[in-house]
Amino acid sequence: MGAAECCLEREDETQNGDLLVSQFLERLTPLEVSTGLATLSLVEAELPDSGDHITIDLDRFALAGLILTGSIRVTVIGAEIGARVVVDVEKPLDSDRATVQVKAFTVKDKGMKLTEKALSIDSLKHFVCNRLEGKINDEIMSRCKSQLDGRQENDAEPLDEHG
Fold first, then answer.
1. Is residue 128 a part of any domain in this protein?
2. Where does the source fall among the domains of life (predicted)?
3. Which of 84, 88, 128, 140 is deepest in the core (most CB within 10 A)?
4. Would you say residue 2 lies in a domain?
């Protein structure tokens, strides 16, 4: 009987983890990053279908290979082109902040690489990293604050005549 209960608990943990990741991905987009020369608009976030990209345990929350897609408008070129950013996100338990590392940035400009030549890709990666970290960490702080406020309201409720 214990083994069946254990399996059910693991299924619940997996479903809760999937729900957490799904909600996390929904909150990441839309995200707009402006560098002056270009504006990157990311509208979809997803994880690759294959592989082990999610870690949720007592030590950390991590997503590896997170794919953000959208478009980039470069003022010099005057065109809007498809864009894709691949990042890793990690939030260790002992840290208040999540970190983002941009692993890849690609644009779909028919192989001419005009966009990459017009932009400093490293600079754009830096802007994306900062905006994403800011958005994620603002969300974490907002959730922590609302949970803390909820606890304080519960603590402040007057006791009834029996308690």
1. yes
2. Eukaryota
3. 128
4. no
